[in-house]
Amino acid sequence: MSSEEKSKPNLPSIADCGCRSLEDFHITGTGKVATGNEEGREGGDFPRGRRPCGKDRIYEVDDISSTKASSGPLLIEKSESRGSVLTSDVSSAERRVLMKTGRIGRRTTNIASAAASWSSVWGKCQPPISALSESETQALMPGSPHHRRRTSSPRQGGADDISGMDYGVPRPRSQLVVKVFVAASLTALCMFILRQPSSSAGSEMFTKREVGVTHVLVTGGAGYIGSHATMRLLEDGHRVTIVDNLSRGNLGAVHALKTLFPRVGRLQFINADLGDPKAVDEIFSKNAIDAVMHFAAVAYVGESMAEPLRYYHNITSNTLGILEAMVKHKVTKLIYSSTCATYGEPKKMPITEATPQVPINPYGKAKKMAEEIIMDYVNVKNADLAVVILRYFNVIGSDPRGRLGEAPRPELRAHGRISGACFDAAMGIIPGLQVKGNDYETKDGTCVRDYIHVTDLVDAHVKALNHAKMNAVTVYNVGTGKGISVQEFVEACKKATGVKIDVQYLGRRAGDYAEVYSDPAKIKMELNWTATHVNLTENLAIAWKWRKLHPEGYDNSVNLS
């Protein structure tokens, strides 16, 4: 006999079939009898009921939920000090049912049937397990010196009285399960809280690069397009730093994003002006930035005609500052937000990336200058930069799930997008809609534009981020490829809002062009991008729903700390 076999407790065998001794049987999660090592047995090694001392072991024949009428959920305790005792690890309500159906034994009456039931439960073990020995049977008799009840106090009689049975009275399972569940839940909660980094630790996460996580600096991230882009980046698992001076953006949009993505180390907001070189350099110095999406810019055609120097300075100078900081701090990827206004008024439609750029207003001219600054630096210096310039058309819509929307600042409504003006008119904020120009050489005399949904536009930015090529500047038009007149737009807005909007036609606005719409073939072919939100009325209806829920726009009085 091996030393290992000698060390095992001397317990009697429970079978005549050559199976292992009782000590090798363990309880599985479902209560099935199984061996620890033998293949072909149901369950696994989960010794529920095994006591640390190694002397007393409890083995469950079967679970009550799967027991046939002939095989009760019987526990046999093998004890060197007490012999064999029947016990049941079930609730009192289950005991009553079992007693009535004869599925649990009274004293010694069910010993033989219990032994026989083992073979039905464990059908693979043949021949049937023999009954207990005579000495073991006598040990269960009430007069036996080895016979003891396991209860510390007698049960009271009544409907629940089963005092004639030899069973242990364990702690009610329902209470035990609840307590275990509560303890486990509290432990898990404590572990979760302890693992959460502090706010200072969260700030440190932006200073270090993390494998598999792209840290994107989003300039103008508190604005309409920038906030939607930030949301998409966060959804995709990126880390985002928003830089915005809030001259046109909404702090409420940043608050909404922080509420949607509260996890520490995902999003931070920096209130800074890109026109301040020291502030820009500090942002790049303190943050491990991998890529930049540059949205921040003044962007109203009419305003650019009135304040041209402001537009040249804001767009070109700020872009140059971003580019210099990227080169200094070895940030290699830039997605630049440009515009179809750089094309001016082309003679041929639709507009391709090869269409000559002849802008006719300071906004378009400034954007074209910024593009040239980027191209000159990358092409002449052969800089280690991967740049994608997106020239997009007229942006409309809001998040289809209603999380973000378009909310121009009150002081900017006069310069805002046509969709915002339509909604203002529908809400009675303004008396009606003023359409500037109805004598253009178009199908109905009003300007024709290509209206691209903000969600599609953001998708183009993400694809550009993922496919930007090193040492190159790639340009794409981002539009639907379909031209819609202002008059058609107003009619769609009436349907979307259900409000009859009064329209007043005025003279042309300086700097406007009659017709522009894109040819998106290049971006479709190279980035596999195409506009999917192309039903104008549906797009406006979704945006209108958000606007009705936020009649005053975002709450910019929020405190982000």
From TrEMBL:
Keywords: Carbohydrate metabolism, Isomerase, NAD
Domain NAD-dependent epimerase/dehydratase: 216-479
Residue spans of biased composition, Basic and acidic residues class: 38-55
Pfam family, one: Epimerase
Top-level taxonomic group: Eukaryota
Cofactor: NAD(+)
Feature: compositional bias, Polar residues: 82-91
A GO BP entry: galactose metabolic process
Keyword Kinase: no
SUPFAM superfamilies documented for this protein: NAD(P)-binding Rossmann-fold domains
CDD domains (UniProt xref): UDP_G4E_1_SDR_e
GO molecular function, one term: UDP-glucose 4-epimerase activity
Protein's UniProt keywords contain Isomerase: yes
Family affiliation: Belongs to the NAD(P)-dependent epimerase/dehydratase family.
Name of the protein in its database record: NAD-dependent epimerase/dehydratase domain-containing protein
Naturally occurring in which organism (per UniProt): Marchantia polymorpha subsp. ruderalis
